Amino acid sequence: MIEDKVLIVGLGLIGGSYAEALTNAGFQVGAIDRNRESLDYALAKGIITEGTVRPEKEFISRYRLIVSCLYPNTFVEWIRTCQDLIAPGTLITDTSGVKVPVVYEVQRILRPDLEYIGAHPMAGRERSGVVNSDCSVFKGANYLVTPTSANTQPAIETCKELGRRMGFGKISELSPEEHDEMIGFLSQLTHCVAVSLMTCRETSEMAKYSGDSFRDLTRIAAINETMWSELFLLNRDVLIHQIDMFVNSMEALKKAIADGDTETLRAVMRDSSQKRKQFEKN
Fold it and tell me: What pLDDT is recorded for position 1?
């Protein structure tokens, strides 16, 4: 049975959105964040019931379900330094956008009377901070759970139920390795493309000329450089492979254009259109 009290560690955009979704679902939500203004905002909005800027045992030990919304490296360090403050039997999950470097390290250093299972909400915004949080971004979105052999079935089911309670549309289970390979393509590569489009030439005068295509393709180029640089580097081998694959595809397209190869261009476009339709159908 899922706990009715949840502790959010890190009350930024995702942490705030989690807090709002869980409060709306009937949970009692507490939070830890080093920024007092973030806690005060969340308390004033009623999305948490209590909060603290310092990790204290008296506060943390009241919760048996903890969600880390910290950046990956910060989460690992938080576990390393704060796990002695957590009550035995507590289940810990997270929202990190990369899993292999996080999941196995946390499970390696974690006390044996605690359990951690990775999760990743496939939703967010380009803005940061709890003031921009909005749990509506979870409605119908994908939620990924990344168990390992160290996880128990009750923990896996609790993690999935947490996603369902927050309104996610599809709950998927995959290994940390499968997660990082998939996210390297679906999320990290797409951010690389958007950043490259915005920076490959001067664009300051282009707003008055651009249409929907450029705006849509570069929406995610307004990027949190601290978080995304960390994600890119933690998943570098996978991401470099995905970038190479994309560059090869672009080179093939470039060659067809340079050669005036209409048939190849049309064949690639037909393939693209068919795959996009199937993507939308799924």
Answer: 61
**Which residue bears the tokens 């869980």?**
22
Q: Return d(Cα 89, Cα 157) in angstroms, integer.
A: 16
| The pLDDT of residue 192 | 97
Q: What is the mean pLDDT of residues 9-19?
A: 95
Q: How far is CA 143 from CA 120, 210, 251, in A?
A: 6, 34, 34
Q: Mean pLDDT over all residues of the chain?
A: 94
Measured CA to CA, the distance from residue 76 to residue 68 in angstroms comes to: 10
Contact present, 133 and 48 (Cβ < 8 Å):
no
DSSP symbols for 106-167: HHHHS-TT-EEEEEEEE---SS-SGGG--GGGGTT-EEEEE--TT--HHHHHHHHHHHHHTT
Q: Which residues share a beta bridge with 67?
A: 8, 93
Q: Which amino acid is present at 2? A: I
CA dihedral 145, 150, 156, 162 (to 10 degrees): -70
Residue 230 to residue 227: CA distance in whole angstroms: 5
pLDDT in tens, 112-158: 999 999 999 998 776 778 988 889 999 999 999 999 999 999 999 99
In angstroms, the CA 191 to CA 132 distance is 20
Closest by CA position to 147, among listed 107, 89, 101: 107
